[in-house]
C-alpha cells in the first residue's frame, strides 16, 4: 500500500475505535445510572421490568450493574482517549484491561461449567442468610422474591428449608405459598409433599435449555474483545511508524 493508503487506513480504524469506545462509554454510564437507580429505588425497577428484575435480583442486580457500568466507563474512556490523542500509554492500558477481562471471563466460564456445585454452595452462603433476614421485612426484597418464585415456579434458593428459622417463618408460622404450589397455609408437611424445586435449580435448567443462545452471546462478546485488542495493538504499533 502507498503511504497515503496506509494513512487513510490508519485514520479509518482510528475513527472506528473512537466511535466504538464512545458507544461503550455511553453504555457504561447508562448501566451505572440504572444500577444506582435500582439500589436507591428497587420497587420502581420491579414495577417496570417485572420478571426480568426478579430473576436478576438473585445476583443482586444493583451491584452487578454498578460494577459493569464502572468497568465499561473505564474501558470506553481509555479506548476513546487513547485513539483520539494517539497515546501509546492509554492504548496499552486499554489493551491490558480488556485482556484481563477476557481472561477473567474465560476463567469464570470454565469454573461455572466444571464447578457448578461450588457455585451453588457459594450462592447458598450468600443468598440464604438474606432470605432469612430480609424476606417479609424489606418490601422491595420480598416483592422481588415473590415474583421470582411465582414466575419461575420455585421456592427459596435450594428449597423450602431456606426459610427455616427465618423472620417470615418465625412471625407467621408458615412458608411462602409458592413453596406449596400456591396453597395459602403452607406448613412443613405441605411444603415437603409439594417438593417445589429451588430457584437455583430452576434457573440453571433454564440456562441449560437456552445454552445455545447464551453461548452465542458469549462468543460474540469474546469476538468483540479480541477485535478491540487487535485494533488497539494495531494503532499502538502504527504510532511507532508515524
UniProtKB/TrEMBL annotation:
Record's keyword annotation contains Glycoprotein: yes
InterPro entries: Tetraspanin/Peripherin, Tetraspanin_animals, Tetraspanin_CS, Tetraspanin_EC2_sf
Record's keyword annotation contains Glycoprotein: yes
Transmembrane segments: 12-38, 58-78, 90-115, 213-237
Topology in membrane: Multi-pass membrane protein
Main location: membrane
Cell location: Lysosome membrane; Membrane
Protein name: Tetraspanin
Source organism per UniProt: Oreocharis arfaki
Amino acid at each position: 500500500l502507498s503511504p497515503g493508503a496506509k494513512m487513510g487506513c490508519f485514520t479509518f480504524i482510528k475513527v472506528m475505535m473512537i466511535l466504538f469506545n464512545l458507544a461503550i462509554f455511553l453504555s457504561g454510564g447508562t448501566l451505572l445510572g440504572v444500577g444506582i437507580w435500582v439500589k436507591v429505588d428497587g420497587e420502581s425497577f420491579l414495577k417496570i421490568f417485572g420478571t426480568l428484575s426478579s430473576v436478576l435480583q438473585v445476583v443482586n442486580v444493583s451491584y452487578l450493574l454498578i460494577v459493569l457500568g464502572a468497568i465499561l466507563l473505564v474501558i470506553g474512556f481509555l479506548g476513546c482517549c487513547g485513539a483520539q490523542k494517539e497515546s501509546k500509554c492509554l492504548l496499552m492500558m486499554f489493551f491490558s484491561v480488556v485482556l484481563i477481562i477476557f481472561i477473567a471471563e474465560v476463567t469464570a466460564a470454565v469454573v461455572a461449567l466444571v464447578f457448578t456445585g461450588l457455585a451453588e454452595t457459594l450462592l447458598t452462603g450468600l443468598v440464604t442468610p438474606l432470605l432469612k433476614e430480609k424476606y417479609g421485612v424489606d418490601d422491595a426484597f420480598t416483592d422481588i422474591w415473590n415474583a421470582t418464585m411465582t414466575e419461575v415456579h420455585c421456592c427459596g434458593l435450594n428449597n423450602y428449608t431456606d426459610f427455616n428459622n427465618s423472620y417470615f417463618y418465625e412471625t407467621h408460622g408458615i412458608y411462602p405459598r409458592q413453596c406449596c404450589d400456591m396453597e395459602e397455609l403452607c406448613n412443613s408437611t405441605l411444603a415437603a409433599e409439594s417438593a417445589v424445586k429451588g430457584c437455583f435449580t430452576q434457573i440453571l435448567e433454564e440456562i441449560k435449555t437456552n445454552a445455545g443462545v447464551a453461548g452465542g452471546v458469549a462468543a460474540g462478546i469474546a469476538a468483540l474483545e479480541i477485535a478491540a485488542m487487535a485494533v488497539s495493538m494495531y494503532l499502538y504499533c502504527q504510532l511507532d511508524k508515524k
